[in-house]
Amino acid sequence: MSAMFTKDDLTFLRIVGIRADDAVVATEEESSNEHDPTLKFLRDHNLPLTRTNYLAVAWLGNPPKELDPEAEAEIPDTLQDRDE
Prior knowledge:
The structure is a single chain. By secondary structure, this protein is mainly alpha-helical. It has a domain at 25-79. Helices cover 37% and strands 0% of the residues. α2 (37-44) crosses α3.
């Protein structure tokens, strides 16, 4: 499935750090995350569900370098950083 973006869409995506051609590294979440507005935005715009894209959208293009444990717990399980 190929997504169609306007020039303005691509500019916005680039500003918030999302590459529309990123590889998909996560699958859609189960019902526990079905109401997550960030996942909904990524799905609605046919953007890859990656940790980088999720953080870029959730923090409006300015995600923190490191997340505290509480913020990490809010991210869908498949996108959480498990390197501890």
